[in-house]
């Protein structure tokens, strides 16, 4: 659906925000773009949407060059900005209908109703925007972006400032849009949001794409697991007979933490050998549990590697 080729952006003051980016976003997927503040996320979205001119490279939206054939490219895109930019005294119905008209689309009350109902805004359609909560205002921005029936929806920090319950409701809305065939690209600071929703994840750092991977595969490839073994009696130090295992003491000696590769098969994790060695040295385990590294752990390590 979107192909970015050799894209760079240097501003007038000489700052290079984007550096030779190549990126392909598949039709009908949810793609999450992660990166620290100033990494280039919003600049990249702005260039794809035609709001900022690239210094080099090109962007194709459903095969349409967003410079040479900008009307066709732009008509396929809906953008939900990070900032709340609604007119305070306009009703929900009017502002969404107006957004549809901006793209030259004929009036279609049935489509507007469908969008408002999907976003739980139907009962608020006659309310002025100043009467809505912050979460509802953000839903109105999504409704406006969907008013002209785009094939691609960009969500720049869609749940910023939204409480946890409403955030999860909006996740369901986004999944529903994906199921209808809309391609979703979102930026987020909520790591769990990307882990929960995205089919693929891209990481951007200092204007460069450092990784693009399937979410599940990323967890499998870069995730590690920890096995915590709670002991009956505390240890002052790890016995020399266990030095061949990746163990650390925790909980004031009452636990051993074993780190292993999450992608290893059962016999490759070393757990069976570890348990046998524990028994051999006479250590008794009263409880154990595992923890897999989260996407946040992976993201932090990736950003550190590319500093």
UniProtKB/TrEMBL annotation:
<dbReference type="InterPro" id="IPR017871">
    <property type="entry name" value="ABC_transporter-like_CS"/>
</dbReference>
<feature type="domain" description="ABC transporter">
    <location>
        <begin position="2"/>
        <end position="231"/>
    </location>
</feature>
<keyword id="KW-0067">ATP-binding</keyword>
<protein>
    <submittedName>
        <fullName>ABC-2 type transport system ATP-binding protein</fullName>
    </submittedName>
</protein>
<dbReference type="InterPro" id="IPR027417">
    <property type="entry name" value="P-loop_NTPase"/>
</dbReference>
<keyword id="KW-0547">Nucleotide-binding</keyword>
<dbReference type="InterPro" id="IPR003593">
    <property type="entry name" value="AAA+_ATPase"/>
</dbReference>
<dbReference type="GO" id="GO:0016887">
    <property type="term" value="F:ATP hydrolysis activity"/>
</dbReference>
<dbReference type="Pfam" id="PF00005">
    <property type="entry name" value="ABC_tran"/>
</dbReference>
<dbReference type="GO" id="GO:0005524">
    <property type="term" value="F:ATP binding"/>
</dbReference>
<keyword id="KW-0813">Transport</keyword>
<dbReference type="InterPro" id="IPR003439">
    <property type="entry name" value="ABC_transporter-like_ATP-bd"/>
</dbReference>
<dbReference type="InterPro" id="IPR050763">
    <property type="entry name" value="ABC_transporter_ATP-binding"/>
</dbReference>
